[in-house]
Amino acid sequence: MTQQQIPPAPQHVEVAIVGGGQAGLSMSWHLKQAGVSHLVFERKRCFSEWRDSRWDSFCLVTPNWQCRLPGFHYAKEYGGRDPHGFMLREQIVEYLDAYLASFDPPVIEGCEVSRVEPLPGGGFGIRTSAGDFTADQVVIASGVYQKPVIPRSAERLSASITQLHSSNYRNPRQLPAGATLVVGSGQSGCQIAEDLHLAGREVHLCIGRAPRSPRVYRGREVTDWLTDSGYYDIPYESHPQKATVREKTNHYLTGRDGGREIDLRQRALEGMKLYGSFKDVDGGVLRFAPDLTRNLDEADRSYNNIRTLVDEYIARQGIAAPVEAPYAAPWKPDVDPTELDLAAQNIASIVWAIGFTADYGYAQLPVFDGRGHPVHRRGITPMPGVYFMGLAWQNTWGSGRFADVGQDAAFLLPTILELRRAQRQRQAA
To answer: Which GO MF terms does the UniProt record name (predicted)?
Structure first.
């Protein structure tokens, strides 16, 4: 009779971090400084989204000086020499790799987490492709950009149309000859449409209700104005839009060519074809809502509101700054188009840039609402020992971004340490 093998006991750590992006590794930096044993589980390679899911001409849309991961600010510890520039994709990866090397976090790469669940005796079980683990506390930092969104109606399009998600777009040469339709006017959609347009390709762009932002106003980068005014420090609980701000699409603008605005009206004058919100597919025809005019107007309203915020700050502080003329729309649609015949317009490819959804299926924890969204306050959930990192507006505009993700991690650290202290006291009793 063959003796039955007893499986090895799961490896135990005080804190398990799911996700090796900027959020998970910012948390790791703080835990390492505090001497807390932990592991970071990353299903691919650390910062894989920055390495593998960005197009060739991709660059930051915020100035380099806002890259301030904990212990590794761009101009200080990293020694970057272009704080007001916008790093290209390869430069971003170099910065992130240098960050990894700066503190050597305990990461298991190529390790997919398939289940996180509470254990009967306390703590959490973590099932992974590298084996089973247990932890006293868990930080979920796997991000909200896991599952690319492509509408089911896209399945009804002809196989002759090349379709890809924005995360798989690399450059204009990747697409077949002919016109391209880009669906989505967030940062990715607008920048990809511009990338194709500047390469001389014929571009059709379906725009939603994404807002836009000025780049430079009254002699200064708008990011600098909003930072000095304290706007970026407003917590979502005090924001005029309250919790709904978490649902808002990012403003579109670009760091390309040294940083500039994206004005879709100007691109329309140059030949880019604009449409309203995508609705459906009807044979070889795409249907749109008759809201192009409204969407352009709302984007401009956001643009002008940001200008007003800057004006008000300048006035309060008595700052001498050049005055600029009000924005005047260079183009307006005669009608709101409601359909697009792909064959008639020689459209050979479609880039879907309508975002991602989160995938928390592995987290078998009672910390989600009816829509599957995390229930938390600044990353702290109602379940002791469970935290989130990297969420949009987890606290402020900079949450989850290079700008302030380190502050989010620093906020969680005292709660983690307090629970750790209480657990040790119980064990010693």
So the answer is: flavin adenine dinucleotide binding; monooxygenase activity
